[in-house]
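User: Hello, can you help with two protein structures?

Assistant: Certainly.
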Amino acid sequence: MLILGIETATTQVGVAIGSAEGLIATIDVVKPRRHAELLMPLIEDGCRHAGIELSEIDGVAVDIGPGLFTGMRVGIATAQALGVGLGVPVASVVSLTALAHTVIGVDGVIASIIDGRKGEVFWALYQRRGDELQPLTEPAAGRVTDVVAAIGTHGGQAVAVGDGAHRYRDELVSAGPGLMLGDLWYPSSAAVVEVARSADAWVAPVEVAPLYLRRPDAEINWATRRGAS
């Protein structure tokens, strides 16, 4: 099964192509606010690097968030359009899971933290048991202090990854010697493919929906303006 992976839930835009044998091509670039402009050209480049035609894709995996609302919508809309156009199923991958999936060689807690802006983060805790990545918490939106408190309930030892972890590194590092900062900033498109392949949870394109965790900023601003009028 040839899988096209799409990652647009962060400031990164990524495309990967993989099969049961492993990854064939992967392209990840950090280009804030250019998701809509770059995604289809990157998909075309990915297919060219993989030596395949887009029509050969058997399934599309997409990062559904949480993350940047506009980027999420671009990725999901593209995945749905490709799924319908190619007649193939789509798999939803949570950004925090894709981020944690890349962390290997860690026995303790993995804290996936994505910058939610406005002083908030999107986060979840995971732990590896053998080759399996298991969630310890549900994805949530909150302050970085919420993450620190949750880590404390799971022994206080953790590796924190993601752009949110790097933005709030001082708060995390000062929380105690058991909390370390990993190098990863963003979930990779390769991880999106790998998570989708292992989960094997394919659905019709219309069933895919974004994981917001809070109302989109545009809706909040609209409600605020209406309340002030």
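That covers the first. Now for the second protein you mentioned:
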Amino acid sequence: MKLSYIKELLRGRKTVLTIQDMVVLFGLNRPYLRTVLGRLVARGDLVRVKRGLYLVQGKEANFLEMAGKLKQPSYISLETVLANNGIVFQDYSQTIFSVSNNTIKMKVLGKSFEYYKLKDDILLNPLGIEIKDGVMQASIERAVCDRLYFSPGYYFDNLKKIDAANLLRVANIYNNQRFQKEIEKLARKIKE
């Protein structure tokens, strides 16, 4: 077993890798890569999270990165973004909330992952989606819109960090009258 594979894994910034990531990283064909992965898992250098998804042993797991690779297409949003930015004060640290093309809940390595279904024309629209440390995440305004789309009348603890103009701009992609009225009402409240 070449030590260079392990060094390559430990040197990189990623903590969670798909088979495709490792095809690119190692430049191996898939059949041989499966053999290498089996050996790395058997030796304890990699941890198999689920089929086709591996965690680099010796590195702290980045659960946001993992959430993006467990379910694709998806992006981090809802309470994960809102709590991390001080918009809601409740502790949601045990669960990563994301938006995807179907609703699913799973638990991996003691962490809960919840994905909420959003129509493809909204989900795949890049407006209000940012890439932070290689992870697709909603902006504050996109996360607010996502939450209100799924939960009408949702209460936000802190409105100061929400940009009303950007909120209205992002809200246009949802194409829903009830939702649009609620966003306009929230934008007026933010401007007060």
